[in-house]
Amino acid sequence: MSKQPRYPTSSLPHAGTVPNKLQTGGCITVQVGIVRFLISCYLHYTPIPTERVLPRIFILYRRSSVCSVRRSSLMDLLKSVLILSISIFSLRLLVNRHRRGLHLPPGPKGLPIVGNFVEARAVANSNEPPWVTFSKWSHLYGDIFTFQVFGSRTVVLNSYKAIMDLLERRAHNYSDRPSSPMLNELVRWKWLFSLMRYSDWWRLHRRTFHQSFRSRIVPEYYEIQKQRTSLLIQRLVTSPKDFFGHVRAHSGEIILEIVYGYRTQDKIDPYIKLVDVAMEGLNAPGVHGTFMVDFFPILKHVPAWFPGAGFKTKAEVWARNTDRVLDLPWALAKKLMDEGRAVPCFCTRNLEKLPPSGDNSVMDEVIKNCAAIALIAAGETTVSAILSFILAMVLNPQVQTRAQKELDELTGFTRLPEFADRKNLPYIDAVLSETLRWNPVVPLALPHRAVNDDIYEGYLIPKGSTIVPNAWAVLRDESLYGPDTQNFNPDRFLKQDGKSLPPNPELLAFGFGRRVCPGRYLAINSLWLTMTYLLTSYTIAKELDSEGKEIDPVVNYNTPGITSHPHPFPCRFIPRSSAPSFN
What is the pLDDT of residues 426-485, one digit of tens each? Predict the structure, then answer.
């Protein structure tokens, strides 16, 4: 039997061909086609400079006619390795030269070292909401602009096209979240999977949540939503002036029963109050750049008594509230299960799937986190949207009258609307879309992070940049939604001959790409049902002063934090005679 060579291998084929036979030999030499290697890799295999350059090199190396194998000397092998190294180095020089020729998106000119520190602090401390300020900046610098604070780059997207191109079509590069030492570590929101880094841990949370709240599952929750919305209608009869509290209780009660199997005993339930208190610690530090510790993570180690470290004292208070909203409802659900009093809910269904023996601590933590996330999201986003709808009806009685007419014609004013009616109520759907557009719940969508360098519209977006989508600016874009976008006009979303409908605000209201909110189906159902029940049962009107004159409500959405909701405003809920809600 002949002795096998020490290094059996084969000739690499030309791109697109198959080798005819294997060639074996002793020591390996490599003859590299340098010109073809550089030109092909630079022009065809590296459209995004510096992104996965070495993997692309070796893909080309395998596919190209770059080597042949024959018996040779060790010196030839070393020469070939040297040539290959020079080729890789030359390619890197070309890539870096091209990268240096690119520019960041324009933005306010900063100072040496500190960058736009002054501008960032001015935005954080201004009475004007940051989404409005960023919209104004876009008129100066363009739809895409950037600012830097001590080397930390933030790219703000102010157009529908830019948001869709980057966060949807290039979601693979923009599905990560920037780290936030203030939120995740000091205030202990690290269990909130909407803030988690793009990872297997995040995927496990999202998959667990999605399985219980996808579009095919949410019909199971219709009855709970209908019962609790009917209770809201009844409460408005006895104490209409407390409608802010009633709306907040209504949203919390729905999610507490769906998720924890807990039926609230009082309109001011302690578990609902937990959400209100905890949200302060999410909203205040939630807008990127509000606290300097997010730019300088080392500040998290500064003691609370140190001058300028007041954020540590705030964080300690907020963190205790964060722990309570995570732990207390979960302990209640486990107690109800142990006592045999639990009703079917998100927690029981998922816990019952776990094997009776073995270590279930990981999935226990995931289920616990997902339950609290649902409670937090419903307790803030749905409330904001319902209050915006009520304010819009006060300010636009003609819209309210038209919506009531559509409902009455369908139901005959003899019953309350059903979810099955939705397809036959186009104007109601238009009102819902306009509610989400007029004053979005999350005006600055949660920030994303660039995983790798990217080039867009001739601009370089460096790896690690924070990407902030300005949903508010897009939803006020008159080129998309027509004139007078500051006004409430549902006709924007009704089909007109020869005109296409504008982008659905749901696309901008619930996040983008792989980070889109998985609870959006439940949220939309709650908003739709509440709108139709209110319109069927009441006429919502301006409040009257002591002289019987109407009081014009002030539209004020300048609330600090991630979510935006209207400041308290007065109004009247006038029961409609013979409404089916009261029969």
Answer: 999 999 999 999 999 999 999 999 999 999 999 999 999 999 999 999 999 999 999 999
Residues that constitute the known binding site: 517
| Calpha distance 583→578 (Å, rounded) | 7
Q: Residue 81 — very low, low, confident or very high, per pLDDT cuts 50/70/90? A: low
Convert the pLDDT of each residue in 221-276 to its tens digit: 999 999 999 999 999 999 999 999 999 999 999 999 999 999 887 666 889 999 98
Q: Which DSSP letter does residue 418 get?
A: -
Numbered residues of the known binding site for heme: 517
Task: Answer for the pair 196, 177: CB distance below 8 angstroms, yes or no.
Answer: yes
Q: How far is CA 230 from CA 1, 181, 241, 393, 406, in A?
A: 89, 42, 18, 20, 20
Contacts 24+ apart (CB under 8 A), 33-36: 33/64, 33/65, 33/66, 34/83, 34/86, 34/87, 34/90, 36/64, 36/66
Q: How far is CA 422 from CA 409, 411, 429, 528, 531, in A?
A: 13, 12, 8, 9, 12
How many angstroms from the chain centroid is the CA of residue 577? 42
Which two three-digit tokens encode residue 575? 């029961």
Q: Which two tokens stand for residue 479?
A: 């080129």
Question: What is the secondary structure of 362-378 as a DSSP string?
Answer: HHHHHHHHHHHHHHHHI
For the chain, list the domains and their CATH numbers: 173-582 (1.10.630.10)
